[in-house]
Structures are given as C-alpha cells and as structure tokens.
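Board notes, transcribed. Complex of a protein with histidyl-adenosine monophosphate.
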Amino acid sequence: MSYQRVKGSYDIVPTSDEAWKESAFWHFIENHVHTLAKKYALEEIRPPVFEYTDLFLRSVGSETDIVSKEMYTFEDRGGRSLSLRPELTASILRAYIENGLQQTPSQRYYYLGSCFRYERSQKGRYRQFTQFDVEILGDKDPTVDVEVISCFLELLTNLGLEKYTLKINTLGDLISRKNYVTALKEYLETKKHLLSEDSQRRLVTNPMRILDSKEASDQALLQEAPSLREFLSRETLSHFQEVCNLLDSLGISYQIDEKLVRGLDYYIDTVFEVVASDDKGAQNALGGGGRYDGLLKQLGGPDLPGIGFGIGIERVMQALIAEGKAPLRESGPQFFIIPLSKEAKTAGFLLLQKYRKEGKSALLFNKNFQIKKGLQAAEAMHAQEAVILGEEELEKKVITIKNLRTRQERKESL
Ligand code: HAM
C-alpha cells in the first residue's frame, strides 16, 4: 500500500524537476522576506493554523467565496467549529487583540505561513499555499498605504522579478459602499436574466463581486451600470488622490482599475493587486491587499485603522521561473572526504568532526575505498572540494584537496 499527499498540496524537497518545490529556493525566498521585514520595522506574529470558524465568518465575510465554499471547516471532538485559516489577516488581528498588543509602541506586523482553501487545484492554485502577509495598524495616513504597496513591490524587485503590473482602486467607506450596492442591485435586478449563473447568485449574496466577473455577458451589462466613483465621499477621493500622487512621486507605475473589488468583505478605501504581466491565465494575481479600517473594532479590538497585503509565494516563485530568474541551486558541502582504506576512514571521520567544529560543511564517503566512485559521489553531491585520504597521505600526515570546479589539487597537513 502506498500513500499519496492530499490533492492540492505539494512537498518541498531538496531536488525536484519543478524548481519552486526545492527547499533551497524556499530558503532564498524566506531570507528575502525576513530581511525586508526588518528593513520596514515589521515584527512577527505567528498565529496557529486553525481558529474558531466564527472569526472568519465575521471578518472575511460569510457570503464570500472563500468562507462559503473554500474553507476547511470541521468540528473538533469537543463539538466546536474550527477552520484552517484561509488567509492571515483575521488571525493576526485576533492575536493582536488577544495579546493586548495595542499597548506596544509599534503596530507593524508580518508573517510567512501556510493558508488553506478548498479550491479546484491547478498551476498556481493549491489547497495548502503560502502567504507573506503584512499588516500595519493604527495609521490612516496615505503615506502608509504607499509604504505598504512599496514593501510589496520591493520584495518582487529584490527577488529579481520584473514583469508585473500594480492595479489600484478605492472602494470608499462603508456608507458610500452601501449606497452604491443598493444602486447596483437596482440596476442589475432589471436585467437579472442576462447575468451568468454565478453573478445571479452574487446579486443576492455579494453584488460588488459581479464587477470582477470574467464573463463577457456580465461585463457587457456592467458597461451601463452605475459607477462606484459617483458614490464616493470627498474624503475617500482625496485620500485616494494623495495615494496616487505619492506613488507618482516615488516613480511607481500603476493602473487604476475601477473594477478591482477584491474577494474579501473587510476592505474599504484603497485596495490593490499585483498581477504577473506575462501570464494570461486567470491565476495571475501575485498578491493583493488594502485598507480595512473598522475591522479591528468589529473583532472586539480598539477602533483603529489597518492596512496590509498577502503575497502568494508559490505564484511569485513560478513567475520568477517564467522570467528565468530562479536562483541557482545551492552548492553541496564544502568538503567531501574520500578515504581509500579502513585506517583512512577513521582518520577521515575525525577530520569530518574537525571541519564541522570549525563551522565548515563536510561529508564522509563510506561506501567503499575506490577513488573513482568517491569522486563521482562528490560531483553528484555538488561538493566544492574532494579531500582524498590514501595510504600515502596517511604516511605523510597530509591530505590531498581537489577543487572540483577548477580541478586543481593541493596538499595540506592532516
Ligand atoms: P487574497 O487576495 O485572498 O488576499 O490572497 C492573497 C494572495 O494569496 C493571492 O493574490 C494569491 O497570490 C494567493 N493565493 C490565494 N489563494 C491561493 C491558492 N489557492 N493557491 C495559491 N495561492 C493563493 C488575502 O488573503 C488578504 N488576507 C490579503 C490582505 C492582507 N489584505 C490585507 N491584509
């Protein structure tokens, strides 16, 4: 009997024919994430992978696709409804409130961790995937919106990614949005029969989501629909204008996309998404985020604004590969010790310990005492240098070190 991993999940392994599944590539990403977080003075919050289901119902929204169709929800043995987190914002805010972090001077957080969504699995879409999430609380200033966006883009740039597009929009405050939804609903109700099946359902559950429908028939109907812009308050528009001005002054290019609504209920005002430019597929959002002023209060915390983003790490890695920017595979151990006799093996084993004590990476070949096989193994392990210990070396108390790139040899004292 053999077992397989759960559909929509994947293993990260030392070598794979898909580079994004290789552990060294993940280490590369993780190093960049933690370095960037330090630069932006972000502190880490690590929440558990599951929460009481209610948290996501209240924050992400019970009518969203994520919560209504994609959540891994189950009852534990105590009869409580728990869910694997489908995203990180809700958990980070819950942890912030529960741990009284509003008392601390900095309110800037990040986390790199797994999320779970029961989606149809395909390239770029997994049931367990990884997000780099950033949340900045307590600051309503437009500079923070731009700081968050530039942090997002800086990760992509630092990793070497070039082909992407930043899309931004503003959704307005809750009151203007409510008025807009009423008008949109009124308009679409009269043409309901022309809407796609999905959009007919959304007309009841979440009408704003119809705006980002990919169906041509829906898009045609939306041409004449009332525009969200007309419902926005002066504050919202001036906040958004300032965000655009600041992006301009930083030389960050962007597209304003009035159809960008995002699939989670908690957003107000600024929202944004970054898409990989050369990927025409539907799964090309590398990440997205926005403001969610009011959410903290709704979850029982202080009445503070918030803004953040989530980046899908697998998608970023795949975009890097598509651009030919995947990092080179890490090399193997620095020293690969090849003993050519039983006594040499003992000496080689002591040498192995000595190298490691000195902080050097090393491996000992102990399959046989044949130099050819030892060198083949060293090459296969991508070792940098082979350390040969034969009769002659033992007698003279030396080692022969062969550099496996340059092929040059040198002797050193044992
Ligand atoms: P989201 O747009 O739902 O936002 O997810 C962010 C990113 O996670 C997506 O753009 C995508 O790259 C990645 N992602 C989502 N689902 C999958 C999947 N099934 N497989 C692979 N990657 C996936 C949020 O989650 C918000 N919490 C972001 C945020 C933080 N907003 C404010 N703060």
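Residues 87-89, 117, 119, 125-126, 129, 131, 133, 135, 263-264, 285-290, 308-310, 312, 314-315 surround histidyl-adenosine monophosphate (CB under 6 Å). The two ends are 50 Å apart (CA to CA).
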